[in-house]
Prior knowledge:
Structural class: alpha/beta
CATH architecture: 3-Layer(aba) Sandwich
Amino acid sequence: MRFSDTALVIEGGGMRNSYTGAVVEKLMREGIEFGWVGGVSAGASHTANFLAGDPLRTRESFVSIGANPRTGGWGSFLRGRGYFDSNYIYHEAPLRTFEHSGGRIAAFDFPAFLHNPTPFNIGAFHVDTGSMTWWNRDHTPTIDALMLRVRASSTMPGFMIMPHVDGELYADGALGPSGGIPIDAAEAAGFRRFLVIMSRPRAYTKGKATPAGILRRVFRTHPAIADALIARPDHYNATRARLLELERGGDAYLFFAENMSVENRERNLHKLQESYRAGWEQAEREWPAIREFLGEPD
Length: 298
């Protein structure tokens, strides 16, 4: 079933996306397609997996694959590979198959992704200019090109090695003006109806975190990152206010992760499995309301 008038907008959140992966999987298993799909940070991985149409890889990317020792940890960080080993996660794991109790997890199906006609955007933060760069199908003719951009969008400053794309340095797309929920990109693509999958509860607001002086010292060689981190709570909260306004007007369905129990760097398999199960239970519970919002297919 295709709903060409609706955009699917996916928030990031690192390993919190073990929860939201259940919603993305539910959409795939119900055969739902959209007029546009977009994500930043961990939401970029969901975007790629959704368009490739592989529900099991969608689930396990943030559960069993995410908990795999090869994906990182403090040992990886101390060896200079980052807390999350980007080279393994984005350039090795997508090419591999994994044996899993729930079945065989196939390698990322790039031909299926390539033949899916749905427009999409993946965004990352340009480290030098402080602006967002948005990529689409024109920029992803190969699996390497796609995964490099997913990696760029997902790179947590300080915890992952920042990659170069076309000679330019990039970091986490959540540093941009939407705060990690790419409703701005969906609106720029011309959409006015949105299904938004978020990795925080409805009542959540982002408070001030690390003092500005510390951030400016830590990122003294990349001042745009420091500026973006300082501004991020205001950007994030403003985006959520905008989304609530759209919800009140009937133009958005907002899926809030109401029982989130993990943080963005969680790697414990049991906790990630529990997070996924909680997400699936909520997705099943909300499915009638989601389906009602989507209305009649094309």
